[in-house]
Amino acid sequence: MRGKSARDLTEAEIRDIALRYLSRREYGIEELRRKLLQRGAESGITEQVVGDLADANLVSDQRFTEMYVRMRKRLLFGPLKIRGELRSRGISDHLIAAEIPSEQETWFDSATQWADKRCRGELDYAERAKIHRSLMNRGFTHEQASVALDRIRQQYQDQTI
What we know:
Layout: H1 11-24, H2 29-39, H3 43-55, H4 61-74, H5 79-88, H6 93-99, H7 104-118, H8 125-137, H9 142-160
């Protein structure tokens, strides 16, 4: 199928390509649509194939969002980063809000865990600022980053006593 132009791809071939993508990992509906269009499929056929796959529950924004949030949380990314990445993949805000945990303690723990991996002993002002910026770049809020650094400082003080 590599040498075929967009006009040569039939609906069955596009469906086959989509199923191969879905066999590797979950995709959001919009993300799968974009991927098929990049592959050279006609937009009308792509819409029909993706719609059929969604009707058959083979592609689901809900499942994709659950999987994506779980994976990114495990990799210690913050809620702002996860939300932005999901939006860029075409996931609606109400699905994102339903899947991203709203309790702050979860994010404080994740931020603390990530910062703890980066700390070597007591933090001076420059090192603290560097880790704070890194936490913000990973999608944590200012408050979450500050609480994480305060927890790290407290852990270090408790160890030295």
